[in-house]
Amino acid sequence: MSDKHLSTQFDTELAAISNRVLEMGGLVEMQVGQALHALTNFSADAADEVLRQEERVNQMEVDIDRELSAIIARRQPTARDLRLLIAISKAIANLERVGDEAARIARTVGRLIKAGIPTKLPLADLDFEANLAIAQLRKALDALARLDTARALEVLKQDDLIDQEFDGLLRKLITYMMEDPRTISACIDIVFVAKAIERVGDHAKNLAEATIYVVKGTDVRHASVADVENVVR
Predict the structure, then answer these.
(1) C-alpha span between 26 and 202 (Å, rounded)
(2) With 0-12 CB in 10 A as exposed, 13-18 as middle and 19+ as buried, what is 162?
């Protein structure tokens, strides 16, 4: 069998496993959106659907991991191909954790629906933070699919926005709890939801860093945005 034939087969395998990662990414993105829909609409059905999808996400992680191991054993890739497979392994781990955060939100929604949530709590702020996180996740997945370092850099530059939203929401909730102790339980649950959303943004950032690693061969974890910008350029 010719080297060219082997290379073509390998490219096909890489394309197939990359598509599986994007499929998994689409699923967890939908989970997060549905979890927030459950919260803002007090929908127990939507929350239950998020939890039903959790098993599917977990199984996808296991299946893709198995495919990765088989490709590495069979092809023994080097250089950029190996970096891509390592990045895919990191990507599915981060996506599985995004699914975990969506499930955590859904379970919290279930508690809030049963206990009753004060309507005056700042759920609109929570929705805004969630939209930022989902946009970051979508952008990070797009960057990984296209191996677009400029797009990945955008994700890193905007990461602080979600942190700022979380901090602002936390201050508001503390004010509500101080003014009306009856809201304490619900406010604590909302803090847990807001923290879960912030973690979605963190996982999007990890995906963006993995993309830069594939293309540039440089590990930019823990590097400043300015330093990453120099790497990308």
Answers:
(1) 17
(2) buried
Closest among 59, 194, 228 to 123, alpha carbons compared: 194
Tell me which residue of 105, 113, 112, 79 sits closest to 200, measured CA to CA.
105
In tens, the pLDDT along 81-104 reads 899 999 999 999 999 999 999 999
Q: Where are the domains of the chain?
A: 3-232
Residue 22: CB atoms within 10 A of its CB come to: 15
| In contact, 68 and 85? CB cutoff 8 Å | yes
Is there a contact between 194 and 166 (Cβ–Cβ < 8 Å)? Answer: yes
Which CATH architecture fits 3-232? Up-down Bundle (1.20)
Query: What's the mean pLDDT in 28-47?
Result: 90
Tell me how far the alpha carbon of residue 105 is from its chain's centroid.
14
- In angstroms, the CA 147 to CA 64 distance is 19
Quote the CA–CA distance of 73 and 223 in Å, as a whole number.
Answer: 32
| 134 CB neighbour count, 10 Å cutoff | 20
pLDDT digits (tens, 9 = 90+) for 126-178: 888 989 999 999 999 999 989 999 999 999 999 999 999 999 999 999 998 99
Calculated CA dihedral for residues 16, 60, 218, 198, nearest 10 degrees? 130
For helices 3-40 and 123-146, what crossing angle results, to 10°? 170
